[in-house]
DNA sequence: TATAAAGTGTAACCAATGTTACTGTGTGCT
DNA sequence: AGCACACAGTAACATTGGTTACACTTTATA
């Protein structure tokens, strides 16, 4: 684990902290689609992403979903953190977008390190800031963009975290993430294809205009 | 200033910290409508709200606005904080919703106190968590509610921060906050009035179903 | 290979919201 | 009083997005 740690977090944390993480953290590897956290869960540990990507979703009372953003390597989930501290329930759902490797840190340490290591403190604050920025971006998309623009942005973001200009996804699953219907997505995808921005195939979309 | 400080933050901070705040903070009183911060501003100090309320807005490229949430007494703006630390620009606009009193803390102190006072650390983390929760609530409203539900929620929130079941506002200004058009708001307000939920008058809306 | 299931394309229709345009009515000012 | 202006009501219409329905194709599986 120490190798992965140094590779992804070595530039952030001093050796003493890296060693502490190595001692108390547990390595975890999950497949695509694995649900790391659900709405209402109580959280006992915080994840540091080593590789892969995790998508963060919001859900309403009726069970309708909405994709908020992706978390990638070198990042953490700041929500976890504040949930841990206040013993609160998770407000969001986290699902592995790709096969993902993480290091789980027990809650107690997290707060202890806040005072002990300046670098940890900065990391946590930076993480909060990044997450807020991404929430704001999500708000921009929903509030200011039309569905076709949101869709194209979604495709590009997804291609980004998958590091591939071809993404494997069904129209139905896109509809879930964007909180709309399959028919609407099919219609808009076809229109994007006609404009030469993508190429459609069963379970596969190639993005041309990245 | 020390009186207001103790009244609003005494239960949170130890005396030593209250004294430090008293020494370095500057008291500020602004009228309704005063813009405390704009998008793109560099921030040099962080506000602690003593009384009143501040509304936080997002804006897109075309200048269209959207209300995110209100900040009230006993609260701070966590965005400010992360902006300060990273020397980044503000992502949001802050406008006094009512006459407002605040204490401004210079950036340097903020980060110094993070290590020095556990209570300050908790306050900051709590504030981040609260702000994220409110952003999520904003997302819920935009993504999952219809315009008439959003409107009624808006009216209730506004009544809350104004501590009054009658709010003074024009249909046009509501339209700005909810990022829609005046005609749509007038139409929906009239429908809410017909349902017996509000009473409409020029520049004034009384909320019955609080 | 037969059959079922999942995925996609598309038409027709509906509902919600946005737009344009015009009317009337208070309010403040001269 | 007379005038200008901000504010509100409302009709008519356009657009976007959501819904229903059905046909067709590919993939999985008995």
Summarize this, please?
2 copies of one chain form a homodimer. With 210 residues, chain A is of the alpha+beta class. The first copy, chain A, has 8 helices and 10 strands.
Would you write up a description of this structure?
The structure is a homodimer of 210-residue chains. In chain A, helix 4 crosses helix 5, helix 6 packs across helix 8 and helix 7 crosses helix 8. The radius of gyration of chain A is 18 Å and the shape is elongated. The first copy, chain A, contains eight helices and ten strands. The first copy, chain A, has two domains: 142 residues, Jelly Rolls (Sandwich); 62 residues, Winged helix-like DNA-binding domain superfamily/Winged helix DNA-binding domain (Arc Repressor Mutant, subunit A, Orthogonal Bundle), CATH 1.10.10.10. Chain A starts with a helix and ends with a strand. With 210 residues, the first copy, chain A, is α+β, with helices and mostly antiparallel strands. Chain A is 48% helix and 24% strand. In chain A, the strands form three sheets. The first copy, chain A, has a four-stranded antiparallel β-sheet with strand order 2-6-4-5. A three-stranded antiparallel β-sheet of chain A has the order 1-7-3. Chain A has a three-stranded antiparallel β-sheet with strand order 8-10-9. At the A-B interface, helix 3 and helix 5 of A face helix 3 and helix 5 of B. Chain A binds a DNA duplex (30 and 30 nucleotides) through helix 8. Chains A, B: This is Crp/Fnr family transcriptional regulator. Chains A, B: It comes from Aestuariibaculum sediminum. Chains A, B: Keywords: DNA-binding, Transcription, Transcription regulation.
């Amino acid at each position: 684990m120490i190798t992965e740690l140094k590779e992804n977090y070595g530039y952030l944390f001093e050796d003493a902290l890296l060693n502490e993480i190595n001692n108390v953290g547990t390595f975890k590897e999950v497949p695509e689609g694995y649900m790391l956290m659900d709405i209402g869960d109580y959280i006992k540990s915080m994840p540091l992403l080593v590789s892969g990507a995790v998508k963060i979703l919001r859900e309403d009372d009726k069970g309708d979903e909405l994709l908020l953003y992706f978390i990638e390597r070198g990042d953490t989930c700041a929500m976890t953190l504040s949930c841990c501290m206040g013993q609160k329930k998770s407000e969001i759902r986290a699902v592995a977008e790709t096969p993902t490797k993480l290091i789980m840190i027990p809650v107690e340490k997290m707060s202890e390190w806040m005072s002990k290591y300046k670098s940890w403190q900065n990391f946590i604050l930076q993480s909060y800031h990044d997450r807020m920025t991404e929430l704001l971006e999500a708000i921009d998309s929903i509030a200011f963009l039309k569905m076709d623009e949101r869709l194209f942005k979604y495709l590009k973001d997804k291609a980004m975290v998958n590091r591939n200009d071809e993404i494997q996804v069904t129209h139905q699953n896109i509809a879930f993430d964007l909180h709309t219907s399959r028919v609407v997505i099919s219609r808009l995808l076809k229109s994007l294809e006609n404009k030469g921005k993508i190429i459609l195939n069963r379970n596969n979309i190639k993005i041309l205009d990245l």
